[in-house]
Amino acid sequence: MMKLPESVKRLIDVLTEFPSIGPRQARRLAFYLVGRGENALEELSQLIRELKHVKPCAACFLIHQNTAPFCDICADPKRNRAIFMIVEKETDLLSLEQTKHYQGRYCIIGPIPKTGILEEWQKLRLKHMQSLIQKECGGVADEIVLAFNPSSVGDFNASLLIPELRTYAKKITRLGRGLPTGGEIEFADEETLGSALEKRSSEGG
Amino acid sequence: MMKLPESVKRLIDVLTEFPSIGPRQARRLAFYLVGRGENALEELSQLIRELKHVKPCAACFLIHQNTAPFCDICADPKRNRAIFMIVEKETDLLSLEQTKHYQGRYCIIGPIPKTGILEEWQKLRLKHMQSLIQKECGGVADEIVLAFNPSSVGDFNASLLIPELRTYAKKITRLGRGLPTGGEIEFADEETLGSALEKRSSEGG
Q1: What is the nearest CA distance from B45 to chain A, expressed in angstroms?
Q2: pLDDT reading at A194 higher than 90
Q3: Could you report the per-residue pLDDT of B103-146, keeping only the tens digit for each?
Q4: Cα separation of A71 and B8, whole Å?
Q5: Shortest CA distance to B80 belongs to which of B155, B170, B142, B126?
Q6: Confidence at residue A204, expressed as pLDDT on a 0 to 100 scale
Q7: Could you say which DSSP state residue A111 is in?
Q8: Which of the residues A22, A50, A159, B204 has the least number of beta carbons within 10 Å of its own beta carbon?
Q9: What are the angstrom distances between the C-alpha of A161 and each of A153, A157, B194?
């Protein structure tokens, strides 16, 4: 390492702090970047600088670059303002949005600590959703969907939030469980197959 | 994706082109960066811009930022100028340098294509090393080490280069094979154990 230029060493340090990037991959990325040429470096440098102008939505906390304080989803008058979905991550929101099967709004709560104690900023986000429900839904939303992962961690997270939310919604739901489309019964794990049996739906006539 | 700011989408596209980073990790990295705050973004943006001033060494092709055309290793008068080591990657060079067991010089040849046909720039690098041997070692180096991985791919790569190098060195060597330090005989694969037997060394009196 001592043989590398200072700027490259510093970049490797910064890249190593990135989530799920170790020191080896950080080195490889730095060498890759060096090889990309001036124009590509200038573009990337600019793109990163531009991120300064990205801000969280004042309602759901999804990042956006609008001049108004709201993201495109929260600003969309066609969205159902009486349904909220709590997700842990932006990436979960994007995956759910891509289905086009949900027309309500969101609240990005952030990754819930294993201790079960929300960070202060997470408590503020929850409070903020509650105050939106107060102001815009007369205190009771039609539904709050807890879109946590279908796992014991997700179950735990849901159990943490339900007491805080019970009075704020007519119903609190979670995403449906069962066999994933394209999956095979033979290879489904016991839990999944159990859910698929419990949640079986009637067909036809 | 359509819901994200243009600059973030473009950044995700660029990050997806990075080696061993898929679209999912690219998204996560972009969100991570957004969360880092202005100062961190400015620093990273600057660091990436500075990479423009990094250039490959005129002798071994390791990147450096010296005003002279040579990297610190090639500029070091204490290095043995009659021994060359060919490595595929900068990261291999750095790992070997860290051992402090090698005092010769390097040539970074780049990843050798599976076809066995060197890229034009790789042929130039090889030619450049040969011309250094002509100029500085009277046409014959004391040794050329082929520091390729101890694998069938590495064997193949070595077999490609040996004919090109035979007249340029008194001897051509590869890195020693055997049991890795800290390894256990019981768990060593057959090839490794075979090498360890073949290359066994006498101890004591």
Answers
A1: 4
A2: no
A3: 999 999 999 999 999 999 999 999 999 999 999 999 999 999 99
A4: 14
A5: B142
A6: 61
A7: P
A8: B204
A9: 13, 7, 60
Best A44, A76, A87, A96 member to test B by mutation, with max B CBs in 10 Å, is A44
> Contact A86/A67 with Cβ under 8 angstroms?
no
Longest dimension (CA), chain B: 75
Run of H or E residues at A169: strand A169-174
Q: Residue A10's closest chain B neighbor by CA?
A: B47
Max distance between CA atoms of chain A, in angstroms, equals 75
CB-count burial class (<10 Å; 0-12, 13-18, 19+) for A145 = buried
What 3-state DSSP class applies to B143? strand
Between strands A105-108 and A141-147, the pairing is unpaired
**Tokens at A135, concatenated:** 């102001």
Cα(A158)–Cα(A161) distance, integer angstroms: 5
Higher local confidence (pLDDT), A199 or A157: A157
Residues of A in contact with B62 (CB under 8 A): 3
Q: Is B167 exposed, middle or buried (0-12, 13-18, 19+ CB in 10 A)?
A: exposed
Report, as ranges of residue numbers, the positions in chain B whose pLDDT lies below 50. none
pLDDT at B29: 94
pLDDT value of residue B143: 94
Tell me the C-alpha distance between B62 and B13, whole Å.
28
pLDDT at residue B188, rounded to an integer: 82
